[in-house]
Specification:
The chain contains twelve helices and two strands, in the order ααββαααααααααα. By secondary structure, the protein is mainly alpha-helical. Strands 1-2 form a two-stranded antiparallel ribbon. It is found in: Golgi apparatus membrane; Golgi apparatus, cis-Golgi network membrane; Golgi apparatus, trans-Golgi network membrane; Late endosome membrane. It holds the Pfam family Yip1.
Length: 314
Amino acid sequence: MAAAHELTFHEFEEASDLLVETPDAATLSRSDQLTPQGHVTVAVGSGGSYGAEEVVEEESDKAALLQEKQKQQPGFWTFGYYQSFFDVDTSQVLDRIKGTLLPRPGHNFVWHHLRNQPDLYGPFWICATLAFVLAITSNLTLALAQRRDPSIHYSPQFHKVTVAGITIYCYAWLVPLALWGFLRWRKGIQEHMGTYTFLETVCVYGYSLFVFIPMVMLWLIPVPWLQWLFGGLALALSATWLVFTLWPIVREDTRLVAAALLSAVVLLHALLALGCKLYFFQSLPPEYLVPPSQVPSLPPNVPLPPTLPRSMAT
């Protein structure tokens, strides 16, 4: 015990002498020495002075992730904000198009093809292509009808491009917006119910319209029952694919709500196809037929050639 007291006294004496020589030096108590290593240490410099330096630890993965999140994101009014939605290659777009043409139960398009990376490149160009194909094919139908029947008067209808574009883009944006809002509202009531993001819903509807592009091209065949057959097949394929894609989300809801929602989705899809058929490929209106009063008639005093029948005089 006495030896311990004597050792402590000698240490105190040495510390006192050191403070006299270097009054600016920092001291450490014994309780500080018992603290865990890694905070503040006392070091003796080449000049005999003591300095405090902080031990820098390596950055963990969590700190790096927080630093990444703290980076300033571009605003929605900038080009960089929308650039990520168009960052897809041709193989990805073709793979997603193939997924819309092969609807299979249990094969969800969002989970197997989008993989939390929805794009707007495919839906944008699919809608643009469908609008132009609708307008061009409608004008070609009138031009071909004039070749078969000279009494038909054909003039280019450029306004159909605008009508087709507004119709297709409004359907591809407003219907997904309404569906996404309804699913978000139902998720607040049914907490166990899942939902898609707005961009995923827009991407689903955009790719669902691809099957209508070859259907519209086949409507050039001037056979009414074939046109209705092609339209029905394309509608059935696209509507079935939509139901299979939305079913994993709506099946958690009540049977009545799920049935009503899927019925509304199929009904709106059918109205789009039917409206395109009746507006762009309707039977020829009266203004495209040359009225009989405008057919030039021969004057009564002009003698008819011998080969012209008498019935053509009037």
